[in-house]
Amino acid sequence: MNVIFVLIAFSSFVALIFLAAYIWSVKTGQYDDNYTPSVRVLFDNEVRKNDQEKTKDEIN
Question: What's the pLDDT tens digit per position in 15-25?
C-alpha cells in the first residue's frame, strides 16, 4: 500500500516538473513561429487571369 502512495507522489512531482517546463517555454516564446511568415510569400497561390476562358479539354 505504501508503494502506491510513493508512486502517486512521485508521478505528481514529475507532472509538476513537466507543467513548469511547459509554462516556462510558452512564456519565453519557444512556440513563436518566426520561420513560416518569412516563407509564406513563396508559396502564394497564383490567381487565374480569366476564369471565363476554357481550354478545349474543359469544353469537351
Answer: 999 999 999 99
Note the pTM of the prediction, 2 decimals: 0.54
Residue 48 cell numbers, joined: 487565374
Q: How far is CA 55 from CA 19, 45, 47, 48, 52, in A?
A: 58, 20, 16, 13, 10
Q: Which of 40, 19, 22, 39 is nearest to 31 (CA)?
A: 22
CA atoms within 13 A on the CB side of 58: 5
What does the block give as the cell for 59?
469544353
Distance between CA atoms of residues 47 and 51, nearest Å: 9
H/E stretch holding 53 reads none
Per-residue cell: 19: 507543467
In angstroms, what is the C-alpha Rg of the chain? 27
DSSP annotation of 30: T
